[in-house]
Structure formats: structure tokens, C-alpha cells
Design brief:
The complex is a heterodimer.
Chain A (H helix, E strand, L loop, with lengths): L5 E12 L2 E12 L3 E5 L6 H8 L7 E6 L2 E2 L5 H6 L1 E5 L10 H11 L4 H14 L4 H4 L9 H13 L5 E5 L7 H18 L2 E6 L2 H7 L2 E6 L2 E6 L1 H6 L3 H11 L1
Helix pairs in contact in A: 3-4, 3-6, 4-6
Chain B lengths: L2 H43 L4 H13 L2 H8 L10 H25 L3 H9 L4 H34 L9 H10 L2 H28 L8 H36 L6 E7 L2 H16 L3 E8 L3 H7 L5 E5 H8 L8 H16 L1 E3 L9 E6 H7 L4 H4 L8 E3 L1 H5 L4 H8 L8 E2 L2 H9 L5 E5 L4 H4 L2 E4 L11 E6 H14 L5 H12 L5 H11 L1
Parallel strand pairs in B: 1-2, 6-7, 6-8
Antiparallel strand pairs in B: 3-10, 4-10, 5-8, 5-9
Helix pairs in contact in B: 1-4, 1-6, 1-8, 1-9, 2-4, 4-6, 5-6, 6-8, 7-8, 8-9, 10-22, 12-13
Classes of the chains: A alpha/beta, B alpha/beta.
């Protein structure tokens, strides 16, 4: 299955909650090694789409396939352990040190302590945090950017093929955000991960995405490369592009 | 007796009561946590259960403690009298803060944290163990802390069902008008509450995010104090059982065990003590279940938790059999004995020789100054008096309502309803002007109170007797015969004064009477 080029695909997916349609007729596929950015305004359904991939929520209609199999056909816990997930502020556990946070996925997988320690140090290095200085710190002793780096390190520690990120850099100041975006792009390139990335920031989408899916009112209204997006006559796409032009 | 002398003389008993108190509190809290924590977690998973379960726990907490103890008495296995009932009642009280804080603690966690845990592929159990419980720990510990502090307080009431603990001193102190007892009981339980609070507070703070550096030392302090309290519970027990060993060794192995109960006032305890020592002298193994509040002795007797206790014919006739008061002592005795046999299968002993009637009391100086001798004398001058009565007198058929009607009293102010033993002190202190006490009470002469004559013969007779279970009646017969008409009113008043006024132990006073008679 890992031979297959498509790692995630949505087939006519709809999602509703309490009778309200959040998503309607979503068809998408994510190819191995690409970074698909889900772009759109708040409430457009981009985060919902993301959470359908690791079954934090379940489709009302249609199906979501990961590695060729329906997410509903496999154990949700098993599915999630194979997928890295980063949310805003990293979603770190405040009662655990940086090292404990990053090592947790491996601990859940039952890896031995020595292996976890080595791997955690490696991941901290990868995201630019000196293990000597940061391993024993608690999340509240770190800056927002450092917390976000930890979130990425934790998502990568179990070496999943697929990474899901939900507006990870949204809460950061502009300079920190720019630095992290650059570094994240480098890490993804080096490791060859497949990424689904949710953002409302076009600049971020253009920088990181190999393809952009523009969402509006629960539907995918545009799907294409950043260059195609830049040339799109779609009014919503034009509106986004104008914000960058300023 | 100075407080220091009191402590020197009673430290052994004080340690024993403290130990009982700690044991009751720790056991009940442990139950509440073992039950409440999983229940609280369940409520966070199955939200539909929240309303009914929290509702139940809420209701449990609103039940007055003494009522809860009373309700538990007839329930098999968990009920009865003694420490077990107290532990269960306290656990029920402690349940609410434990459950509520578990729910609040877990549901209060940032949803993003839970999302991160789920997305990482944690199972429900892993999320609970690794994320939810550690993060909710400070809130849950606050709940346990509240539960413990409540328990230390409510456990003092448990003395009323014979559970022991520091409440024994508080009740006894109120009854005997003894400040040393009151202070010892109250200060010791307040200290306990503070120590528990301190210990759990330290442990709680060690779980708070950001307190990392002091974490270990806090935990050591907290666990140290908790450990010390537990040690008092265990070592204190050994100490006391060592001290009791001599007495326990003397217990004959006759195989017949008799449980003697008493009501929660001095006279009842002295009478029960006299019977107990008499039975011990006859070679029985006797267990004391003294100081049971309200109607607990009767309920306990019916439930088989005790075998015999001292009662008064008037009380049995009006309060338990719910009959209208009559004034002929012989008729009351005969009717009561017959009805007890038929209705409850209980046996009345022959009368002990004295009656403890209601005594309408005023201050001695007032009686002398205004030349008041009978109850009727006071009616015209008592309009502006503040009356105060025990709960018992206010509620019973032969009590306040009939009394006011019989004599035509018209008090301008509503009488105060308060603890009987407190009315004596309040009367002596001038807070009250007229009370209903007991005619054999030693405090009457000790506090210079004057008993007004019941010139209209309103009050029914309260002859002292023992009530026993039928299956133990044969065993008790020799002791009952020995005590037939053996105690005069004067002797009883003297014995009461020895305990209430001179602060002597009922055990001693009873032994003295047995030697002399």
C-alpha cells in the first residue's frame, strides 16, 4: 500500500452536526510527499476536513480513505498513532516536561526508555531546541514559538508518513511565524513527509503548499498549485490575492 | 480543675478519642474517594448520569448529620450503631465534594489538550491516566480536602451513635457543664481539621503547574503530616489496647456477652455503668455502648445492637408508645410493661426506686426574692420571661404545649428551643428565666436553681427502669432484682452531681455506689 501515490482521499464526503451541514460533497486526494494546504476563512470547514482524516470526527456521508482503507474500517487509536497531529500552541500537556511531551507517542507505543531518550534528543535538535537546555522545561517555561517547535517535534517523533497541522503558527508574532514557516518547510523537505496543513493565511499557503485547496461554505471551490491559484479568476481567490498584494 | 490538670489526668482517653476520630475520618474519606473518584470519571464519560448522581450526592449532604445517623441504624450490614455507621454516614457526606470536584476537574481541562491526547492515539484509559487525572489532580485534591475537613467536623456528631471520637468529649462537656471537656474536644478536633487541611493543601499544591521546584518538599511535608496522623491512629490504638490489656485479661470466658446501652446524659450513663459493673461481677462479658442520642437506644435495642438500657416509664409511655400522659405511676408502669412485651417483645425491669420527673426550674435568687414556690405562683409574673427548653420537651405530648395549657402560661416571647444541657447554664447566666430540667439533675443544687412544685400534677411520672431484650431477660434477672427499689432520688441526684459538678468519672461513681449498697 505504501507503494500507492495517494495517501489520503475523500470520496463525496459530507459532515453534519445537529442537522447543520458543515461539509458538502468534498472530493480530495493527497499524494505521497506533497503538502496540501486547506485554505479558507473561519467556519469554512477546513479544520473539520482535517479532523476527518484521523477520525477525530466521522463522516456523515461518503468515506475518507487513508492508505487505501476507509478510516471507519480500522481502529481509531491505531489510525491516529500512525498520523502526526499539531494544533495551535502545540497542544502540549502542561504537566509534562518538553522531553516527556515529545516522547509520549513512543511511550504509548511501548518503546524502551533508552530509545525514547535518544529519539527525543534527535527531534529537539531537528526543530532547533537544544536538548541540554530545553528537555527538562515545562511548557509554561517556554515561548510560544518554542512551544510550537515542540508540537512539531512531538508529531514527528514516531516517524509517521502523514502530518496534520491545524493553524499551527496562527498565534505567533510575525517574525517568529516567518522563521518557523521556513524551518518547517525545510524539515518537511528533508524528511519527505506528506502534510495536510490548515491555514487562513494565503502567504503561508503559497509558501508551504505544493497544492492549495480553497474552501468556502463547506465545499472545496478551488484545487491546484500555488501558481494556478495565483492565476485563478475566482472572486474568492482574487480577494485573497489582494490581501497579499498590499 | 485547671485545664492542664485535666489533660494530665485524661491524656490517655484524649489520645484514644483523637485516634478514633482520625480513624473514622480517614476510613470514611478513603471510602468516599474509592467510590467517588471512579463515579466522577464515569460522569465525565456518560454525561446523562450527571444530574441524577450529583443530585443524590447533593441530597445526602443536606440531610442533617444526626438524622442520617438515625436513619442508618435499622439498615442491616451497613447500619447499626458504632464506628461503622459513622464511617458510612461520613463517607456519604464526603461523596459530594469528591464526585463534584472530579467532574469539574476533568471537564475543566482545555479541550485542546484532550484533542491533542486523542489525536496522539491515546485510548480512553491512557488519556485518563496520563492526562486527565494528573491535570485534574489539584481540583480533585481540593474536593478531598473539603471532604476531610467536613468529616472532622461531622465526626464529632458521630459520638451520638456510640462511634466514639472527640465528639464524646464535646457532648459530655455540654451535658456536664464542663469547660475542660468542651475545650479539649473542640480544640483537638479543630487542630485535627487544620492539620489535615495543611497536609492535603501541601500535596495539592505539589500538583499545581508551576510549583515544580517545591514539588518534592511539599509532597514530603504533606505526606509527612498525613503519615503522622495515621501513625497516631495506629500507635495510639496500640497504646490504649496495652492500657486495656489488664482489664481485658480479667474478662471471664462465660461465653455470654451482654451489650449495655445508655442514653446520652449523665444519669443514664451512671445507671448503665451500675448495671454493667454488676453484670461483670456476676461473670458476664459486658460491652458498653453508651451515650446514644435521641431515640437511638430504643431503635438499637429493637435492632439487636444492644441488649439493655436504662429508660423512664413516662418516656416509654408517651414518647415511644405514643399514649396520652397519665399521672398514676403504677398504672403507667403496668401499661408500659404490657405494651412493651406485646408490641416489641421487650421486658421492663422492676422500678429502680427513683423517678426523674420534669422539673420546672428558675434561678434560686429569683425564687427567694419573689417568694415563688409552685408553678402556679409564676404564671402571673412570667409574661416577659424568656423560656428555654430542650428539643425533647418542646416536641413530646407531655411537654410544652400541654404544660402551657395546663397552667395558663402566656409567654410574650417564643421559648428558645435548645440543647437541654445548655438550658441549665443559660438559666444560671440569666439568659433564660424558666426551663424544664430533670428532677434528679445534680446541676440543680450546683447552680443554685430552684425546682417549682408541680401543683397541678401535670407531669406524668418518670420512674427509672431498665428495658431489655426478651432473650437476655433471664440472664439479667438477678441484677434487676438487686436493683429493685435500690436507688433513691436523693442518691441519684448526688451521683449526678458527683459527675456533673465534681467532674468525676461515671465509672468511679457507679463503683462507689455499688460498694456502699
Amino acid at each position: 500500500m505504501s507503494e500507492s501515490r495517494t495517501i489520503v482521499s475523500f470520496r463525496d464526503v459530507a459532515f453534519e452536526v445537529a442537522g447543520v451541514r458543515i461539509l458538502e460533497g468534498v472530493n480530495l486526494s493527497v499524494a505521497r510527499g506533497e503538502t496540501l494546504v486547506l485554505l479558507g476563512e473561519s467556519g469554512c470547514g477546513k479544520t473539520t476536513t482535517l479532523k476527518l482524516i484521523n477520525r477525530l470526527i466521522e463522516p456523515t456521508e461518503g468515506e475518507v480513505l487513508v492508505n487505501g482503507g476507509s478510516t471507519m474500517a480500522v481502529d481509531a487509536v491505531e489510525l491516529r498513532r500512525g498520523i502526526g497531529y499539531v494544533l495551535q500552541e502545540g497542544g502540549l500537556f502542561p504537566h509534562m516536561t518538553a522531553a516527556e511531551n515529545v516522547g509520549l507517542p513512543l511511550r504509548l507505543a511501548g518503546r524502551d526508555r533508552a530509545l525514547i531518550e535518544g529519539r527525543v534528543a534527535e527531534m529537539l535538535e531537528l526543530v532547533g531546541l537544544d536538548p541540554e537546555r530545553f528537555a527538562a522545561r515545562f511548557p509554561h517555561e517556554l515561548s510560544g514559538g518554542q512551544r510550537q517547535r515542540l508540537g512539531v517535534a512531538r508529531a514527528l517523533v514516531a516517524d509517521p508518513d502523514l502530518l496534520l497541522l491545524d493553524e499551527p503558527f496562527g498565534a505567533l508574532d510575525a517574525l517568529t511565524r516567518a522563521a518557523l514557516q521556513q524551518e518547517f518547510a525545510r524539515i518537511v523537505r528533508e524528511l519527505g513527509k506528506t502534510v495536510v496543513f490548515v491555514t487562513h493565511d494565503l502567504h503561508e499557503a503559497m509558501l508551504l503548499g505544493s497544492r492549495i485547496a480553497l474552501m468556502d461554505k463547506g465545499r472545496v471551490v478551488f484545487l491546484g498549485t500555488p501558481e494556478e491559484f495565483a492565476a485563478s479568476p475566482l472572486p474568492l481567490a482574487r480577494a485573497y490575492l489582494e490581501t497579499v498584494a498590499l | 480543675m485547671s485545664f492542664l490538670d485535666f489533660i494530665t489526668a485524661n491524656w490517655r482517653e484524649l489520645i484514644m478519642l483523637t485516634r478514633e476520630h482520625i480513624a473514622i475520618v480517614m476510613l470514611s474519606t478513603a471510602f468516599a474517594v474509592v467510590l467517588g473518584l471512579p463515579l466522577g470519571v464515569l460522569l465525565t464519560r456518560v454525561r446523562a448520569l450527571q444530574a441524577p448522581v450529583l443530585g443524590f450526592a447533593n441530597v445526602m449532604q443536606t440531610v442533617p448529620s444526626l438524622a442520617l445517623f438515625g436513619l442508618l441504624i435499622p439498615i442491616p450490614f451497613i447500619g447499626g450503631i458504632g464506628a461503622r455507621t459513622a464511617v458510612i454516614a461520613l463517607a456519604l457526606y464526603a461523596l459530594l465534594p469528591v464526585i463534584r470536584n472530579t467532574v469539574t476537574g476533568i471537564l475543566g481541562i482545555d479541550p485542546k489538550i484532550r484533542e491533542a491526547a486523542d489525536a496522539m492515539g491515546m485510548t480512553g484509559a491512557e488519556r485518563l491516566r496520563l492526562v486527565e487525572l494528573p491535570l485534574a489532580a489539584p481540583v480533585i485534591l481540593t474536593g478531598i480536602r473539603v471532604a476531610v475537613v467536613i468529616s472532622v467536623g461531622v465526626a464529632t456528631v458521630a459520638a451520638a451513635v456510640g462511634a466514639g471520637g472527640l465528639g464524646t468529649y464535646i457532648f459530655r462537656g455540654l451535658r456536664q457543664n464542663d469547660n475542660n471537656l468542651l475545650i479539649a474536644g473542640a480544640v483537638a478536633s479543630a487542630l485535627l481539621a487544620l492539620l489535615f487541611d495543611l497536609a492535603l493543601g501541601q500535596i495539592e499544591r505539589s500538583f499545581t503547574i508551576g510549583e515544580r521546584t517545591k514539588r518534592t518538599s511539599r509532597r514530603i511535608i504533606g505526606l509527612g503530616i498525613a503519615g503522622a496522623l495515621a501513625a497516631v491512629a495506629v500507635v495510639g490504638g496500640l497504646l490504649v489496647s496495652q492500657a486495656n490489656l489488664g482489664r481485658a485479661g480479667e474478662l471471664p470466658a462465660s461465653g455470654e456477652r451482654i451489650v449495655v446501652g445508655s442514653k446520652d446524659f449523665t444519669e443514664s450513663i451512671i445507671l448503665a455503668e451500675i448495671l454493667t459493673q454488676l453484670l461483670e461481677g456476676e461473670g458476664f462479658a459486658v460491652e458498653r455502648q453508651f451515650e446514644l442520642g435521641g431515640n437511638l437506644p430504643h431503635d438499637s435495642l429493637l435492632a439487636g445492637k444492644i441488649d439493655v438500657y436504662p429508660e423512664y416509664t413516662g418516656t416509654a409511655f408517651t414518647a415511644i408508645l405514643k399514649r396520652d400522659p397519665i399521672t398514676d405511676p403504677e398504672v403507667v408502669y403496668r401499661e408500659t410493661a404490657g405494651s412493651y412485651e406485646r408490641e416489641f417483645g421487650l421486658v421492663l425491669s422492676p422500678p429502680l426506686g427513683f423517678a426523674n420527673d420534669f422539673a420546672i426550674l428558675i434561678r434560686g435568687d429569683v425564687a427567694r426574692l419573689q417568694r415563688l414556690r409552685t408553678i402556679s405562683d409564676t404564671v402571673p409574673v412570667s409574661r416577659d420571661w424568656q423560656a428555654g427548653f430542650g428539643q425533647d420537651f418542646m416536641s413530646r405530648a407531655d411537654g410544652y404545649p400541654g404544660f402551657v395549657r395546663a397552667y395558663g402560661f402566656a409567654f410574650a416571647r417564643q421559648p428558645r428551643e435548645m440543647d437541654l444541657s445548655l438550658t441549665y447554664r443559660a438559666l444560671a447566666a440569666g439568659e433564660l428565666d424558666i426551663i424544664a430540667g430533670n428532677s434528679t439533675d445534680g446541676l440543680i443544687s450546683a447552680l443554685d436553681l430552684f425546682q417549682l412544685q408541680d401543683d397541678r400534677r401535670y407531669f406524668p411520672p418518670y420512674e427509672a427502669v431498665f428495658v431489655a431484650r426478651r432473650d437476655k431477660a433471664e440472664l439479667l434477672r438477678p441484677a434487676f432484682e438487686r436493683l429493685r427499689n435500690a436507688i433513691s432520688t436523693e442518691e441519684m441526684r448526688k451521683m449526678n452531681l458527683e459527675v456533673d459538678g465534681n467532674k468525676r468519672q461515671p465509672r468511679e461513681v457507679a463503683a462507689e455506689w455499688l460498694r456502699e449498697n
